[in-house]
Amino acid sequence: MQSHIYDVIVIGAGGMGSATAYHLAKSGADVLVLEQFQRGHKLGSSHGETRIIRFFYEKHFYTELMKTAYAEWRDLESASGKQLLFITGSVNLGTSGNPYVISVRQSLDAAGVESEWWDAKQLTKQFPQFRVSNDMDILWQKDTGFLYASECVLTHLQLAEQHGAKVREETHVNHIDWEIDTPTVYAGDSEFYGKKIVVTAGAWTNVLLVEIDFPLKVTRQQVCYYQPATPLFQPERFPVFTEITKNGEFLYGIPYFGKNGLKVARHGKGTRIHPDRCNRKPDADYINLMDAYVSERIPELGNSTHAEVCLYTETPDEDFIIDKHPKCPNVLIAAGFSGHGFKFCSLVGRIMAELVFTGETTFDIRAFQIDRNL
Ligand SMILES: Cc1cc2nc3c(=O)[nH]c(=O)nc-3n(C[C@H](O)[C@H](O)[C@H](O)COP(=O)(O)OP(=O)(O)OC[C@H]3O[C@@H](n4cnc5c(N)ncnc54)[C@H](O)[C@@H]3O)c2cc1C
Predict the structure, then answer these.
(1) C-alpha 149, offset from chain centre
(2) Ligand 1 near 241 CB (within 6 A)
(3) Active-site residue 340, yes or no?
(4) Ligand 1: does its nearest atom lie under 6 Å from the Cβ of 337?
(5) Fewer CB atoms inside 10 A, N or C side of the chain?
(6) What are the chain's domains?
(7) Which atom of ligand 1 is nearest to the CA of 50?
(8) What residue ranges of the chain have pLDDT lower than 70?
(9) In the annotation, is 372 catalytic?
(10) Residue 41 is a catalytic residue
(11) Is the CB of residue 343 below 6 angstroms from any atom belonging to ligand 1?
Protein backbone atom coordinates (compact mmCIF):
# COMPACT_ATOMS: atom_id res chain seq x y z
CA MET A 1 0.00 0.00 0.00
CA GLN A 2 1.36 3.42 -0.93
CA SER A 3 1.68 5.79 2.02
CA HIS A 4 0.17 9.25 2.22
CA ILE A 5 0.24 11.40 -0.90
CA TYR A 6 0.62 15.08 -0.03
CA ASP A 7 -0.87 17.75 -2.25
CA VAL A 8 2.50 19.52 -2.21
CA ILE A 9 5.98 18.78 -0.89
CA VAL A 10 8.14 21.88 -0.41
CA ILE A 11 11.88 21.20 -0.35
CA GLY A 12 13.79 23.82 1.65
CA ALA A 13 12.43 25.85 4.57
CA GLY A 14 14.35 29.09 4.06
CA GLY A 15 12.88 32.41 3.02
CA MET A 16 11.10 31.17 -0.09
CA GLY A 17 10.08 27.71 1.12
CA SER A 18 8.58 28.95 4.38
CA ALA A 19 6.52 31.58 2.53
CA THR A 20 5.40 29.03 -0.06
CA ALA A 21 4.34 26.57 2.64
CA TYR A 22 2.33 29.31 4.35
CA HIS A 23 0.46 30.37 1.21
CA LEU A 24 -0.25 26.79 0.22
CA ALA A 25 -1.44 25.67 3.66
CA LYS A 26 -3.51 28.82 4.15
CA SER A 27 -5.35 27.95 0.94
CA GLY A 28 -6.16 24.46 2.21
CA ALA A 29 -3.40 22.34 0.63
CA ASP A 30 -2.01 19.32 2.47
CA VAL A 31 1.65 20.38 2.67
CA LEU A 32 4.87 18.69 3.76
CA VAL A 33 8.03 20.80 4.15
CA LEU A 34 11.42 19.05 4.15
CA GLU A 35 14.43 20.95 5.48
CA GLN A 36 17.94 19.49 5.63
CA PHE A 37 18.93 21.51 8.73
CA GLN A 38 16.96 22.94 11.65
CA ARG A 39 14.57 25.79 11.00
CA GLY A 40 16.30 29.16 11.31
CA HIS A 41 19.75 27.68 10.63
CA LYS A 42 22.65 29.93 9.60
CA LEU A 43 24.08 28.01 6.65
CA GLY A 44 21.92 29.32 3.80
CA SER A 45 20.80 32.76 2.63
CA SER A 46 17.99 33.83 4.97
CA HIS A 47 19.62 33.99 8.41
CA GLY A 48 20.42 37.15 10.32
CA GLU A 49 18.04 39.75 11.61
CA THR A 50 17.72 42.25 8.77
CA ARG A 51 17.11 42.45 5.02
CA ILE A 52 16.40 45.64 3.10
CA ILE A 53 12.94 46.09 1.64
CA ARG A 54 12.70 48.74 -1.04
CA PHE A 55 10.86 49.86 -4.13
CA PHE A 56 13.93 51.21 -5.87
CA TYR A 57 15.25 49.06 -8.66
CA GLU A 58 16.63 49.83 -12.09
CA LYS A 59 14.40 47.16 -13.63
CA HIS A 60 10.91 48.53 -13.17
CA PHE A 61 9.16 45.14 -13.04
CA TYR A 62 10.71 44.61 -9.61
CA THR A 63 9.29 47.94 -8.42
CA GLU A 64 5.85 46.88 -9.68
CA LEU A 65 6.09 43.48 -7.95
CA MET A 66 7.14 45.16 -4.72
CA LYS A 67 3.74 46.85 -4.44
CA THR A 68 2.16 43.45 -3.72
CA ALA A 69 5.17 42.19 -1.76
CA TYR A 70 4.81 45.06 0.73
CA ALA A 71 1.08 44.32 1.07
CA GLU A 72 1.78 40.63 1.66
CA TRP A 73 4.27 41.44 4.43
CA ARG A 74 1.66 43.66 6.07
CA ASP A 75 -0.85 40.80 5.81
CA LEU A 76 1.64 38.48 7.47
CA GLU A 77 2.05 40.98 10.30
CA SER A 78 -1.73 41.09 10.76
CA ALA A 79 -2.03 37.31 10.67
CA SER A 80 0.77 36.82 13.22
CA GLY A 81 0.37 39.90 15.40
CA LYS A 82 4.13 40.59 15.05
CA GLN A 83 6.00 43.55 13.64
CA LEU A 84 8.20 42.24 10.85
CA LEU A 85 8.56 45.30 8.62
CA PHE A 86 10.27 48.49 9.80
CA ILE A 87 10.08 51.59 7.61
CA THR A 88 13.04 53.95 7.90
CA GLY A 89 13.27 55.56 4.46
CA SER A 90 16.52 55.35 2.51
CA VAL A 91 19.22 57.54 1.14
CA ASN A 92 20.82 56.30 -2.05
CA LEU A 93 24.19 57.88 -2.62
CA GLY A 94 26.18 58.05 -5.82
CA THR A 95 28.88 60.13 -7.39
CA SER A 96 27.35 62.98 -9.38
CA GLY A 97 25.61 61.80 -12.57
CA ASN A 98 25.92 58.15 -11.59
CA PRO A 99 23.73 56.25 -14.08
CA TYR A 100 22.49 53.81 -11.43
CA VAL A 101 20.93 56.42 -9.16
CA ILE A 102 19.44 58.22 -12.17
CA SER A 103 17.86 55.10 -13.61
CA VAL A 104 16.53 54.11 -10.18
CA ARG A 105 14.78 57.49 -10.04
CA GLN A 106 13.33 56.95 -13.52
CA SER A 107 12.06 53.53 -12.54
CA LEU A 108 10.40 54.91 -9.39
CA ASP A 109 8.79 57.72 -11.39
CA ALA A 110 7.47 55.23 -13.96
CA ALA A 111 5.87 53.18 -11.17
CA GLY A 112 4.38 56.25 -9.48
CA VAL A 113 6.53 55.81 -6.36
CA GLU A 114 7.62 59.12 -4.82
CA SER A 115 11.28 59.98 -4.33
CA GLU A 116 13.23 63.20 -3.83
CA TRP A 117 16.65 64.51 -4.81
CA TRP A 118 18.44 65.90 -1.81
CA ASP A 119 21.64 67.91 -1.65
CA ALA A 120 24.39 67.34 0.90
CA LYS A 121 23.01 70.09 3.15
CA GLN A 122 19.54 68.53 3.25
CA LEU A 123 21.00 65.13 4.01
CA THR A 124 23.18 66.27 6.89
CA LYS A 125 20.36 68.40 8.30
CA GLN A 126 18.10 65.35 8.38
CA PHE A 127 20.80 62.78 9.20
CA PRO A 128 23.91 64.45 10.68
CA GLN A 129 25.47 60.98 11.05
CA PHE A 130 26.59 61.09 7.37
CA ARG A 131 29.67 62.86 5.95
CA VAL A 132 29.15 63.50 2.24
CA SER A 133 30.69 65.78 -0.35
CA ASN A 134 28.72 68.43 -2.22
CA ASP A 135 29.06 66.71 -5.57
CA MET A 136 27.10 63.58 -4.63
CA ASP A 137 23.71 62.57 -6.00
CA ILE A 138 21.42 61.75 -3.09
CA LEU A 139 18.03 60.15 -3.63
CA TRP A 140 15.58 59.90 -0.73
CA GLN A 141 12.83 57.26 -0.81
CA LYS A 142 10.50 57.24 2.16
CA ASP A 143 9.06 53.70 1.90
CA THR A 144 12.33 51.80 2.23
CA GLY A 145 13.02 49.86 5.40
CA PHE A 146 14.02 46.44 6.57
CA LEU A 147 12.44 43.10 7.38
CA TYR A 148 13.14 41.19 10.57
CA ALA A 149 14.37 38.37 8.36
CA SER A 150 14.95 35.46 10.73
CA GLU A 151 11.56 36.12 12.36
CA CYS A 152 9.85 36.28 8.94
CA VAL A 153 11.04 32.74 8.16
CA LEU A 154 9.92 31.40 11.54
CA THR A 155 6.58 33.18 11.32
CA HIS A 156 5.79 31.83 7.85
CA LEU A 157 6.59 28.33 9.12
CA GLN A 158 4.61 28.69 12.34
CA LEU A 159 1.53 29.94 10.51
CA ALA A 160 1.91 27.23 7.86
CA GLU A 161 1.87 24.69 10.68
CA GLN A 162 -1.17 26.32 12.23
CA HIS A 163 -2.88 25.78 8.87
CA GLY A 164 -1.94 22.09 9.00
CA ALA A 165 1.43 21.93 7.18
CA LYS A 166 3.94 19.35 8.45
CA VAL A 167 7.54 20.51 8.75
CA ARG A 168 10.28 17.87 8.96
CA GLU A 169 13.64 19.30 9.95
CA GLU A 170 17.02 17.58 9.55
CA THR A 171 15.63 15.76 6.52
CA HIS A 172 18.00 16.01 3.61
CA VAL A 173 16.42 15.28 0.25
CA ASN A 174 18.78 13.20 -1.90
CA HIS A 175 16.70 12.86 -5.01
CA ILE A 176 13.35 13.59 -6.63
CA ASP A 177 11.91 11.01 -8.98
CA TRP A 178 9.67 13.15 -11.19
CA GLU A 179 9.44 10.78 -14.14
CA ILE A 180 6.54 8.84 -12.58
CA ASP A 181 2.86 9.75 -12.09
CA THR A 182 3.22 10.60 -8.42
CA PRO A 183 6.55 12.38 -7.95
CA THR A 184 8.56 10.75 -5.16
CA VAL A 185 11.02 12.46 -2.88
CA TYR A 186 13.83 10.38 -1.38
CA ALA A 187 15.37 11.56 1.90
CA GLY A 188 17.70 9.14 3.66
CA ASP A 189 15.71 5.93 4.15
CA SER A 190 12.36 7.69 3.72
CA GLU A 191 10.18 8.24 0.67
CA PHE A 192 7.54 10.95 0.42
CA TYR A 193 4.89 11.28 -2.26
CA GLY A 194 3.45 14.52 -3.56
CA LYS A 195 1.09 15.49 -6.36
CA LYS A 196 3.31 18.54 -6.80
CA ILE A 197 6.82 19.31 -5.61
CA VAL A 198 8.13 22.84 -5.00
CA VAL A 199 11.91 23.17 -4.93
CA THR A 200 13.08 26.18 -2.89
CA ALA A 201 16.55 24.83 -2.12
CA GLY A 202 18.49 28.11 -2.40
CA ALA A 203 22.23 27.53 -2.80
CA TRP A 204 21.67 23.76 -3.07
CA THR A 205 19.39 23.95 -6.14
CA ASN A 206 22.12 22.78 -8.52
CA VAL A 207 23.03 19.93 -6.21
CA LEU A 208 19.45 18.66 -6.01
CA LEU A 209 18.31 19.21 -9.59
CA VAL A 210 21.39 17.84 -11.35
CA GLU A 211 19.38 17.07 -14.47
CA ILE A 212 18.88 20.78 -15.19
CA ASP A 213 21.81 22.73 -16.49
CA PHE A 214 21.17 25.80 -14.31
CA PRO A 215 23.58 28.69 -14.79
CA LEU A 216 23.46 29.30 -11.03
CA LYS A 217 26.58 30.49 -9.25
CA VAL A 218 26.79 30.15 -5.46
CA THR A 219 29.00 32.81 -3.91
CA ARG A 220 30.34 33.51 -0.43
CA GLN A 221 29.23 36.90 0.92
CA GLN A 222 30.13 38.75 4.08
CA VAL A 223 28.53 41.41 6.24
CA CYS A 224 29.97 43.54 9.05
CA TYR A 225 28.16 44.66 12.20
CA TYR A 226 28.64 47.85 14.23
CA GLN A 227 27.44 48.44 17.77
CA PRO A 228 27.89 52.14 18.60
CA ALA A 229 26.78 53.11 22.11
CA THR A 230 24.86 56.17 20.88
CA PRO A 231 21.12 55.88 20.07
CA LEU A 232 21.75 57.84 16.85
CA PHE A 233 21.70 54.69 14.71
CA GLN A 234 18.42 53.18 15.89
CA PRO A 235 15.76 52.74 13.15
CA GLU A 236 13.81 55.78 14.41
CA ARG A 237 16.87 58.01 13.90
CA PHE A 238 18.81 56.50 10.99
CA PRO A 239 17.76 55.27 7.52
CA VAL A 240 18.70 52.37 5.31
CA PHE A 241 21.38 53.56 2.90
CA THR A 242 23.03 52.41 -0.29
CA GLU A 243 26.00 53.80 -2.13
CA ILE A 244 27.58 53.24 -5.51
CA THR A 245 31.18 54.20 -4.88
CA LYS A 246 33.63 55.74 -7.36
CA ASN A 247 35.07 52.25 -7.88
CA GLY A 248 31.65 50.88 -8.78
CA GLU A 249 31.19 49.00 -5.49
CA PHE A 250 27.58 48.71 -4.28
CA LEU A 251 27.56 49.15 -0.50
CA TYR A 252 24.59 49.24 1.84
CA GLY A 253 23.71 49.65 5.48
CA ILE A 254 20.75 48.82 7.73
CA PRO A 255 20.09 50.61 11.06
CA TYR A 256 20.91 49.11 14.45
CA PHE A 257 18.51 46.27 15.13
CA GLY A 258 18.49 43.18 17.28
CA LYS A 259 21.52 41.51 18.82
CA ASN A 260 23.91 42.10 15.95
CA GLY A 261 23.70 45.86 15.59
CA LEU A 262 23.97 47.98 12.46
CA LYS A 263 24.88 46.10 9.30
CA VAL A 264 27.18 47.38 6.55
CA ALA A 265 28.09 45.22 3.56
CA ARG A 266 29.13 45.12 -0.06
CA HIS A 267 26.60 43.59 -2.45
CA GLY A 268 28.09 40.85 -4.60
CA LYS A 269 31.70 40.27 -5.62
CA GLY A 270 31.87 37.10 -3.54
CA THR A 271 33.95 34.11 -4.51
CA ARG A 272 32.33 31.08 -6.09
CA ILE A 273 31.98 28.17 -3.67
CA HIS A 274 30.16 24.89 -3.11
CA PRO A 275 27.44 25.42 -0.44
CA ASP A 276 28.71 22.46 1.63
CA ARG A 277 32.32 23.65 1.51
CA CYS A 278 32.16 27.31 2.45
CA ASN A 279 34.68 28.94 4.75
CA ARG A 280 32.48 30.54 7.40
CA LYS A 281 35.23 32.67 8.92
CA PRO A 282 35.02 36.27 7.66
CA ASP A 283 38.10 37.74 5.91
CA ALA A 284 40.20 40.41 7.63
CA ASP A 285 40.57 42.24 4.26
CA TYR A 286 36.84 42.54 3.89
CA ILE A 287 36.38 43.82 7.44
CA ASN A 288 39.13 46.40 6.87
CA LEU A 289 37.44 47.55 3.65
CA MET A 290 34.08 48.08 5.38
CA ASP A 291 35.69 49.80 8.38
CA ALA A 292 37.59 52.16 6.04
CA TYR A 293 34.39 53.04 4.20
CA VAL A 294 32.51 53.62 7.45
CA SER A 295 35.25 55.80 8.92
CA GLU A 296 34.89 58.12 5.93
CA ARG A 297 31.10 58.11 5.48
CA ILE A 298 29.68 57.47 8.99
CA PRO A 299 32.61 57.97 11.39
CA GLU A 300 30.59 57.78 14.62
CA LEU A 301 29.96 54.10 13.95
CA GLY A 302 33.54 53.23 14.86
CA ASN A 303 34.97 49.85 13.93
CA SER A 304 32.94 46.73 13.32
CA THR A 305 32.43 44.36 16.25
CA HIS A 306 31.96 41.19 14.22
CA ALA A 307 31.18 39.85 10.76
CA GLU A 308 29.23 36.98 9.26
CA VAL A 309 29.25 34.84 6.10
CA CYS A 310 26.16 34.16 3.98
CA LEU A 311 25.48 32.70 0.51
CA TYR A 312 24.14 34.25 -2.68
CA THR A 313 22.80 32.08 -5.50
CA GLU A 314 23.29 34.19 -8.58
CA THR A 315 21.92 34.02 -12.10
CA PRO A 316 23.94 35.73 -14.87
CA ASP A 317 21.35 38.52 -15.24
CA GLU A 318 20.62 38.67 -11.48
CA ASP A 319 16.93 37.97 -12.19
CA PHE A 320 15.19 35.17 -10.34
CA ILE A 321 14.13 31.77 -11.67
CA ILE A 322 10.46 31.02 -10.97
CA ASP A 323 9.09 28.39 -13.29
CA LYS A 324 8.09 24.80 -13.87
CA HIS A 325 10.76 22.14 -14.20
CA PRO A 326 11.54 21.99 -17.96
CA LYS A 327 10.67 18.29 -18.12
CA CYS A 328 8.00 17.93 -15.46
CA PRO A 329 5.12 20.39 -14.86
CA ASN A 330 4.50 18.85 -11.42
CA VAL A 331 7.81 20.18 -10.15
CA LEU A 332 8.05 23.94 -9.60
CA ILE A 333 11.23 25.82 -8.90
CA ALA A 334 12.01 29.15 -7.21
CA ALA A 335 15.74 29.84 -7.17
CA GLY A 336 18.55 32.21 -8.14
CA PHE A 337 17.49 35.09 -5.94
CA SER A 338 20.85 36.72 -6.59
CA GLY A 339 21.29 38.49 -3.27
CA HIS A 340 18.14 40.59 -3.48
CA GLY A 341 15.28 38.13 -3.06
CA PHE A 342 14.29 38.32 0.58
CA LYS A 343 11.97 41.29 0.22
CA PHE A 344 10.02 39.22 -2.34
CA CYS A 345 9.55 36.08 -0.18
CA SER A 346 6.00 37.02 0.79
CA LEU A 347 5.07 37.47 -2.87
CA VAL A 348 7.03 34.47 -4.15
CA GLY A 349 5.09 32.32 -1.67
CA ARG A 350 1.84 33.57 -3.16
CA ILE A 351 3.08 33.10 -6.73
CA MET A 352 4.22 29.54 -6.04
CA ALA A 353 0.82 28.73 -4.52
CA GLU A 354 -0.92 30.12 -7.61
CA LEU A 355 1.36 28.06 -9.87
CA VAL A 356 0.64 24.93 -7.83
CA PHE A 357 -3.14 25.40 -7.86
CA THR A 358 -3.71 26.71 -11.40
CA GLY A 359 -0.47 26.31 -13.34
CA GLU A 360 -0.50 30.08 -13.84
CA THR A 361 0.06 33.25 -11.88
CA THR A 362 -1.59 36.64 -12.01
CA PHE A 363 1.83 38.33 -11.67
CA ASP A 364 4.17 39.23 -14.50
CA ILE A 365 7.07 36.82 -13.99
CA ARG A 366 8.17 36.56 -17.63
CA ALA A 367 11.63 37.81 -16.66
CA PHE A 368 12.02 34.75 -14.42
CA GLN A 369 11.49 32.02 -17.02
CA ILE A 370 13.94 29.17 -16.82
CA ASP A 371 14.53 29.05 -20.59
CA ARG A 372 15.37 32.72 -21.06
CA ASN A 373 18.71 33.54 -22.65
CA LEU A 374 21.13 33.19 -19.79
C1 LIG B 1 24.51 38.67 3.14
C2 LIG B 1 23.20 38.71 2.45
C3 LIG B 1 22.48 39.91 2.44
C4 LIG B 1 21.27 39.98 1.77
N5 LIG B 1 20.56 41.15 1.80
C6 LIG B 1 19.34 41.21 1.23
C7 LIG B 1 18.55 42.37 1.38
O8 LIG B 1 18.95 43.34 2.04
N9 LIG B 1 17.32 42.38 0.80
C10 LIG B 1 16.85 41.33 0.09
O11 LIG B 1 15.74 41.42 -0.43
N12 LIG B 1 17.58 40.21 -0.05
C13 LIG B 1 18.80 40.12 0.50
N14 LIG B 1 19.54 38.98 0.41
C15 LIG B 1 19.06 37.88 -0.41
C16 LIG B 1 18.05 37.02 0.29
O17 LIG B 1 18.39 36.84 1.64
C18 LIG B 1 17.97 35.69 -0.47
O19 LIG B 1 17.65 35.97 -1.82
C20 LIG B 1 16.91 34.78 0.12
O21 LIG B 1 17.11 34.64 1.50
C22 LIG B 1 16.98 33.42 -0.58
O23 LIG B 1 16.04 32.53 0.04
P24 LIG B 1 15.97 31.02 -0.40
O25 LIG B 1 14.75 30.48 0.23
O26 LIG B 1 16.12 30.93 -1.89
O27 LIG B 1 17.29 30.35 0.21
P28 LIG B 1 17.52 29.81 1.71
O29 LIG B 1 16.90 30.71 2.68
O30 LIG B 1 18.96 29.50 1.84
O31 LIG B 1 16.67 28.47 1.75
C32 LIG B 1 17.01 27.29 1.08
C33 LIG B 1 16.73 26.17 2.04
O34 LIG B 1 16.71 24.94 1.37
C35 LIG B 1 17.29 23.98 2.22
N36 LIG B 1 17.73 22.86 1.38
C37 LIG B 1 18.57 22.92 0.34
N38 LIG B 1 18.76 21.70 -0.21
C39 LIG B 1 18.00 20.86 0.50
C40 LIG B 1 17.79 19.46 0.42
N41 LIG B 1 18.40 18.71 -0.50
N42 LIG B 1 16.95 18.88 1.31
C43 LIG B 1 16.32 19.63 2.25
N44 LIG B 1 16.50 20.97 2.38
C45 LIG B 1 17.34 21.57 1.52
C46 LIG B 1 18.44 24.74 2.86
O47 LIG B 1 18.94 24.12 4.00
C48 LIG B 1 17.79 26.08 3.12
O49 LIG B 1 17.18 26.12 4.40
C50 LIG B 1 20.76 38.86 1.08
C51 LIG B 1 21.47 37.66 1.11
C52 LIG B 1 22.66 37.56 1.79
C53 LIG B 1 23.39 36.27 1.82
Answers:
(1) 9
(2) no
(3) no
(4) yes
(5) N
(6) 5-47+150-213+317-368 (3.50.50.60), 89-145+217-314 (3.30.9.10)
(7) 8
(8) 1-2
(9) no
(10) no
(11) yes
